[in-house]
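Training component of the fellowship. As part of building independent skills, the fellow (R.M.) carried out the full modelling exercise for a liganded target. The chosen ligand was coenzyme A. The inputs are recorded below so that the supervisory panel can assess the work.
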Amino acid sequence: MSKKVEIVKEAVLRVALPEDVVSISKLWQKFMKYNAQFDDSFTVKPKIVGPFARELQQRLDDPNYRLAVIELDGDLVGYCLSYISKKPYFFKLGKFGFIGDLYVAEKSRRLGFGRMMVKDALDFFKRKKVKQIELLVANDNISTIKFWEKLGFKTLLQWMYRRQD
Ligand SMILES: CC(C)(COP(=O)(O)OP(=O)(O)OC[C@H]1O[C@@H](n2cnc3c(N)ncnc32)[C@H](O)[C@@H]1OP(=O)(O)O)[C@@H](O)C(=O)NCCC(=O)NCCS
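Fellow's submitted model of the complex:
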């Protein structure tokens, strides 16, 4: 007689702790590698994970920052880094929210974790009375653009560049 074993995985969204910073930085490295497939402008320096982790650590206690993670059976499988920023003085808008990084590990995608983390960021901005939320996405990252559109975001501008010697 064969026994059917059901594996139930438990996912939790929570604020990042100091001990998460190294795991988050490793996810960040994957995030940047993912971005670099669209354009080499996103290629990061070698041996940069350590300095990035130290910078992240300093942001943990900053009230203008929100760093949330998804923990799945003890492993971090996603993170979202958001913060409050300010427009140049001449704009009426004043402060705005910025979603800087959002990443879900490949094997954990399409399970609702991205949506959960964006909701958490929007709730954070709401508590801080921030009314406009912005982000940047690579032009060729079509599937992620679909994700953002599904969550109610629209294109504000096109970020262009050229290179020269
Ligand atoms: C973008 C990303 C964070 C989405 O995370 P996710 O956990 O897979 O997304 P969710 O499961 O919460 O999806 C939410 C909705 O977005 C849509 N969506 C998600 N991925 C999609 C895709 N590849 N193509 C089309 N629609 C997609 C789905 O329709 C989903 O709606 P549903 O629940 O009705 O199916 C994830 O794919 C990722 O980390 N990508 C690589 C890094 C990246 O591009 N980050 C964003 C930088 S701006």
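The panel noted the following from the submitted structure. The beta strands are 11-15, 65-72, 75-86, 95-104, 133-134. The radius of gyration is 18 Å.
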